[in-house]
Amino acid sequence: MNICVFLSAADLDERYTGPAREFARLLGKAGHTLVWGGSDTGLMKVVADGVQEAGGRLVGVSVDFLAHKARPGADEMVVAEDLARRKALLLAKSDAIVVMVGGTGTLDEATEVLELKKHGKHAKPVVLLNTAGFYDGLKVQLQRMEDEGFLPRPLAELVAFAEDGRSALAHLEAGVGLR
Q: pLDDT (tens digit, 9 = 90+) per residue, 45-71?
C-alpha cells in the first residue's frame, strides 16, 4: 500500500521523533511505500530513514522552492511547481493518508484531504496520528463541527484518530482490505 504521510520537516524532540520512528519501522516492515513531501530534514527525514531501513520504498513529492532539501536516494522523487500541485500528487500517489504532527503546512494538507473526502472526491482512509495529544484540540473542533451540523457526513466517515502507529496502520490496512 502507498501511504501518504503529512508531517513536519522541523527538528523536533524525542516525544515526537520516537513515535514517528516506530511508525516508520512498522510501515517499512509491512512492505508499504511511504509517500511524503520528499524533504530530507527534520521529522520527514526521521520517517523516511525508518521506512527505508525497514525495507520500505520512498516516493517523494517535493516542491520547486524546497527541491534543494529533497532526499537523495528516494525510490522516486517528483518536484511539483507549487504547493497545490504537490498536494494533488501526494493524494494521487497514495492509497491512504496519515497526518502526523506538523505546522500550518501539515494542517493545510490535512484539511484539504478531509474537504475532498467530504465531497466524495476520494474514499481513501485518513488517520490523524495523535502523538502526545498533539491533535486533541483539533479533535474537539471537528467533533463540534459534526455536532453543530457543519459536516454533511459523520466525522467517523472522514477521519479516524489513532494514539499510536500500530493502531494507525491497522486502521489503514483494514480500510483498504489488507487485514
A: 999 999 999 999 999 999 999 999 999
Burial of residue 179, with CB atoms counted within 10 A of its CB: 0-12 exposed, 13-18 middle, 19 or more buried: exposed
Q: Identify any residues that bridge with 36 across adjacent strands, giving them in sequence order.
A: 5, 60
Question: What integer is the mean pLDDT of 76-98?
Answer: 97
Q: State the Cα–Cα distance between residues 158 and 123, nearest whole angstrom.
A: 9
Rounded Cα distance between 73 and 86, Å, is 19
The CATH number of residue 160's host domain is: 3.40.50.450
Structural contact between residues 128 and 100, judged by C-beta atoms closer than 8 angstroms:
no
Which three three-digit cell numbers place residue 121? Answer: 472526491
Q: Which domain holds residue 78?
A: 2-172
The answer to whether the CB of 142 falls within 8 A of the CB of 118 is: no
| Strand, helix or coil for residue 74 | coil
Neighbours of 108 (CB within 10 A): 14
Question: Whole-model pTM?
Answer: 0.94
